[in-house]
Amino acid sequence: MKRVYNFSAGPAVLPEEVLREAAEEMLDYQGTGMSVMEMSHRSKTIEGMMNEAAQDLRELLNIPEHYKILFLQGGASQQFAMIPMNLMKNRVADHLNTGQWAKKAISEGKLYGKINVIASSEDQNYSYIPDLKDLKFSEDADYVYICHNNTIFGTKFNKLPDVGDKPLIADMSSNFLSEPIDVTKYGLIFAGAQKNVGPAGVVIVIIREDLITEDVLPGTPTMLKYKVHFDNNSAYNTPPVYGIYICGKVFKWLKKLGGLEAMKKINEEKAAILYDYLDASDMFKGTVVKKDRSLMNVPFVTGSEELDAKFIKEAKAAGFENLKGYRTVGGMRASIYNAMPIQGVKDLVEFMKKFEAENK
Amino acid sequence: MKRVYNFSAGPAVLPEEVLREAAEEMLDYQGTGMSVMEMSHRSKTIEGMMNEAAQDLRELLNIPEHYKILFLQGGASQQFAMIPMNLMKNRVADHLNTGQWAKKAISEGKLYGKINVIASSEDQNYSYIPDLKDLKFSEDADYVYICHNNTIFGTKFNKLPDVGDKPLIADMSSNFLSEPIDVTKYGLIFAGAQKNVGPAGVVIVIIREDLITEDVLPGTPTMLKYKVHFDNNSAYNTPPVYGIYICGKVFKWLKKLGGLEAMKKINEEKAAILYDYLDASDMFKGTVVKKDRSLMNVPFVTGSEELDAKFIKEAKAAGFENLKGYRTVGGMRASIYNAMPIQGVKDLVEFMKKFEAENK
Ligand SMILES: Cc1ncc(COP(=O)(O)O)c(C=O)c1O
Ligand SMILES: Cc1ncc(COP(=O)(O)O)c(C=O)c1O
Ligand SMILES: [Mg+2]
Ligand SMILES: [Mg+2]
Ligand SMILES: [Mg+2]
Ligand SMILES: [Mg+2]
């Protein structure tokens, strides 16, 4: 069996331990004689597994009781519609435009109401987070929306906008569970599982109780109502059971590791190894302003497309997979999610040094 | 490792061979050094896997080129909204009410237009399929909708209504790939994967090309447009890759078995073993009129709630799992999907005979 260092932006590397356990339990989960894939979502075993996953997540993020956890389908992209459909009462929202995923949420929001883009970093190819001091929020905005970590551009909100009593909505698809957060600062947090948490096909929503309401926009499908999923404990219809099961194992793995404080330390250490080298290197450089750098997604370039291509090719041959950057940034991107071992980043930097020495 | 005979209505039994392969490949899929769960949906490997799954499905069902295959999220329940949102042009549809899932599609349809219920078997607790001869279709109906196999009530459309040139829409969640069908009789077929095909979290849609249009109802979320998923080869956003991978393995398993003609024979043999015994038994009897019986879901009762409960309990102790019927029918239900081995049905009938002898 071969394993590589997988720097994919998502779906992405998972803890090897989690995969091993899943493989072992594939035909017989906890002595039931069935696979998790084969069991009714109404069975005690699966209900128990789902509740335990939610409880572990609650502990990890220190989620207060008046915030509810939903395991849904449709990916993060479906949230771009669910959010306005459920939360727009005045049909107005304030958005910050910090990258491609922020932009997709803006265009989807426009299907349902007026979207005010109150700040943007598009002018510099999203290489920074806009100044949050002088934001002009709209009186009648139902919420303020941010993409907390910009997967493609490698920026992160290291501070939050001061939204007063407006609900702050955050797409945390690419930095969910990478460090502790204060959940009470948000009205709603969502994350596609396929980066830091599990396989594609599960999206996790953490929503403040008072935002779960019956009065959604006309024409909202039953499956797109938060209230329906909340009232049915995420099992209104058949949930993506196997994906939730893997997420649950990742939560246990995080708890065993020491929780999110411990995870944050490791992530900072990993990121520092890479950023320090990028700052010191004459060949490679990061594309993001220092203060707004992501802990998870690290885009970098050599300045020469040819050299970038050569690097990506040779890195792949050496067992460093999926380092090609997104086309709108170019160059390389190393996604160093929770499950990327520190050794993977050390080895990558060693490889980069060698490459630099050989190609200067 | 223990394995039981699992008669769950869904999520349901999968071929043991498929689960074994998935377990073996969990950490290293085809020498990539990554799990299928860890790989980008934009990678050659995953694109190839998804295309192969679609191609195998096309072969199995003999799907003509002008029908398109989509792998989506949201379960069958999300189709209850997607169908009207995408296919209603006049905002009128004709529905046949043959059970709980048929009814759910009706109520969801009413969010979007006028639903004419042109036939119903509600009067006899859905124990039969209504007469299809004198159906009065609505001139302006955009489509005619049926639930092809009624999971809860154990009925199946063994003939189809003659809908002329209206598109016939069929929910085949619980009998998909159980036997050959003539795809050209339908405008759209959909099936939640979690019964006959794979894990929960994937829904398969087969749709006639001309029904994939841009002019959907106002307010339709991007993720709920068939055209968006078709234009992006089911990868507009991150698809439920692992679920599709398991479906793909089930398709290969079916092909190896000899395809759907062979599968049908086996399913008929299995069903006959059970139905013949139900007809002969003095204690147990099926709840569905003979001509409308499902090959997949077999509800039966003893006539005594106490005896039903005793049977379910003893059957469970003997390794026959999930035989409890749905509350609206009561008694028992044996779901004998493709992956249920013939031996499982034989053993169940032996057990029923023994129980009958001991309890008369
Ligand atoms: C920040 C962010 N939001 C949303 C998405 C879209 O996720 P999905 O593919 O699950 O719809 C992504 C995917 O990469 C992402 O990185
Ligand atoms: C015939 C039929 N349609 C629809 C559904 C709903 O499927 P899902 O849970 O995937 O939404 C089911 C589930 O049992 C079903 O049997
Ligand atoms: Mg981005
Ligand atoms: Mg540098
Ligand atoms: Mg039914
Ligand atoms: Mg009888």
From TrEMBL, chains A, B:
Pfam short name (any one): Aminotran_5
Pathway of action: Amino-acid biosynthesis; L-serine biosynthesis; L-serine from 3-phospho-D-glycerate: step 2/3
GO cellular component, one term: cytoplasm
Record: residues binding pyridoxal 5'-phosphate: 76-77, 101, 151, 171, 194, 237-238
Catalytic activity: 4-(phosphooxy)-L-threonine + 2-oxoglutarate = (R)-3-hydroxy-2-oxo-4-phosphooxybutanoate + L-glutamate; O-phospho-L-serine + 2-oxoglutarate = 3-phosphooxypyruvate + L-glutamate
GO molecular function per UniProt: O-phospho-L-serine:2-oxoglutarate aminotransferase activity; pyridoxal phosphate binding
Binding site for L-glutamate: 42
Cofactor note: Binds 1 pyridoxal phosphate per subunit.
Cofactor names: pyridoxal 5'-phosphate
EC number: 2.6.1.52
Subcellular location: Cytoplasm
N6-(pyridoxal phosphate)lysine PTM sites in chain numbering: 195
Enzyme class: transferase
Described purpose of this protein according to its UniProt entry: Catalyzes the reversible conversion of 3-phosphohydroxypyruvate to phosphoserine and of 3-hydroxy-2-oxo-4-phosphonooxybutanoate to phosphohydroxythreonine.
Family statement: Belongs to the class-V pyridoxal-phosphate-dependent aminotransferase family. SerC subfamily.
Assembly and interaction partners: Homodimer.
Protein name: Phosphoserine aminotransferase
Source organism (scientific name): Desulfitobacterium dehalogenans (strain ATCC 51507 / DSM 9161 / JW/IU-DC1)
Gene: serC
